[in-house]
UniProtKB/TrEMBL annotation:
Pfam families: Rep3_C, Rep3_N
A GO molecular-function descriptor: DNA-directed DNA polymerase activity
Family indicated by similarity: Belongs to the initiator RepB protein family.
Name this protein carries in UniProt: RepB family plasmid replication initiator protein
Initiator Rep protein WH1 domain: residues covered: 18-159
InterPro entries referenced in this protein's UniProt entry, alphabetically: Initiator_Rep_WH1, WH-like_DNA-bd_sf, WH_DNA-bd_sf
GO biological process: DNA replication initiation
Gene3D superfamilies linked: Winged helix-like DNA-binding domain superfamily/Winged helix DNA-binding domain
Domain of life: Bacteria
């Protein structure tokens, strides 16, 4: 395992970097492709509160669909969660004082399903490591969705953390087999077979499907291959799939529109981070289309933070019951209120999940432009949030029935 670059370290870590290797977490490789994707989705969902909450929750149906299997197949989800609890994560690295630290933990300390919700937790020691970007790299869900092989995704995960150093460093073959999940197979003790069945196909898929390009190199003792390393370069054709977590926001069209409207730099980036570019763009489109609005910034703030139902509307014919008079507006207000209460990672998951229901035609384009305000997808959006939040519109339906 290669050193973390010295310019990324300080104090005792910098002094020890020349002599000591700083390794990232190694996760036992006996995970299926489904379990690897599940692990990444769970981590992304929990990441914002990884150090502040002892447990985390996600809708079980959302979780199932995000990793690509039937949302009603709870047995498969249970089996996958059981696999994560039984999987070992191990680290061997320098601590903050420059001392060598070895640790081991189950990947999940527990998981349970109740009332359509998956609750899970990490051990405190592992949560600390997972939250440190020098130790563990979050995998972009756009990226992992492109993989069809568990070995390829495992190789990508174990190489991506070293993208800035340009090399994984030398791994002995026993460790490499363990990372690929084939340590118990005598067949893969022969390097020729390991290379033909695992290394070459996995490298080909990583280079074809991801934002990095790998070149394997081997080292021999006598005639036998004993070590392998992977040289890593960024793949410029797919680098666009990388997450943009800050500075790049300032170069976007939506950021420019927010600033032109009067939002401060900090507020513009906060809104983009919290709500996502598509939803902020939809808010801007909605606000800029309104006539006779004195303060468009105030209107946009109400739209993003409180829901579009707070915006001025035409007088309702039934002033005693405005919800009954304009159920579409009230329905939208409730949807956006639910969205407002969810974390940024959950909002991103909701959007990705909804996009799986759309093809590549006008409906998808309209949603990408207007987000949850998409007029072409109004019925789909209503049905989606009715499933996500059962009972959300029940009283509106009752009111409609009473008027009929």
């Amino acid at each position: 395992m290669d050193d973390i670059p010295r310019d990324q370290l300080s104090g005792a870590l910098r002094r020890g970097a020349v002599k000591k290797h700083v390794a990232a977490i190694h996760v036992s490789g006996k995970l299926t492709l489904l379990q690897r994707k599940l692990s990444n989705v769970l981590l992304l969902n929990a990441y914002d509160t990884l150090m502040t909450k002892p447990s985390h929750q996600i809708d079980a149906r959302t979780l199932s669909l995000m990793i690509g299997y039937n949302s009603n197949d709870m047995d498969t989800l249970k089996q996958s969660l059981r696999g994560l609890v039984e999987t070992v994560a191990e680290w061997d690295m320098l601590d903050e004082k420059g001392r060598q630290e070895w640790g081991v933990s189950s990947l999940l300390s527990y998981a349970k399903l109740r009332g359509g919700v998956c609750e899970y937790a990490y051990s405190p020691a592992l949560a600390e490591k997972l939250h440190d970007p020098k130790v563990f790299a979050l995998i972009n869900l756009n990226m992992q969705r492109r993989f069809t092989s568990g070995h390829a995704l495992a190789l990508y995960e174990n190489c991506y953390r070293f993208v800035r150093t340009g090399s994984t460093g030398w791994w002995d073959l026993d460790l490499f087999r363990r990372l690929m999940g084939v340590a118990d197979s005598s067949y893969y003790e022969v390097f020729k077979q390991l290379n033909a069945k695992i290394i070459k196909p996995a490298v080909a898929e990583v280079n074809r499907s991801s934002n990095i390009v790998l070149t394997p190199e081997t080292r021999k003792q006598g005639r036998a291959v004993t070590h392998i390393r992977f040289l890593i370069k960024e793949n410029p054709q797919l680098a666009i799939l990388d997450m943009d977590d800050g500075e790049g926001m300032r170069h976007g069209e939506v950021y420019g529109r927010l600033r032109a409207l009067g939002a401060s730099d900090r507020l513009a980036r906060q809104w983009l981070g919290a709500h996502g570019e598509a939803q902020v763009r939809a808010g801007l489109d909605y606000v800029e289309a309104r006539q006779n609005v004195v303060s468009k910034m105030g209107y946009l703030t109400a739209a993003l933070e409180g829901g579009f139902g707070a915006a001025p509307k035409a007088p309702a014919p039934d002033s005693a019951n405005p919800q009954a008079a304009n159920p579409q507006a009230e329905r939208l207000r409730r949807i956006l209120e639910v969205i407002r209460t969810r974390t940024p990672t959950q909002r991103d998951a909701d959007r990705r999940l909804f996009l799986t229901q759309l093809g590549d035609g006008p409906a998808r384009q309209d949603f990408e432009r207007h987000g949850w305000m998409s007029p072409l997808n109004a019925a789909r959006i209503r049905d989606f949030w009715q499933e996500m939040s059962p009972g959300l519109f029940d009283d509106l339906a009752d009111q409609a029935a009473s008027r009929a």
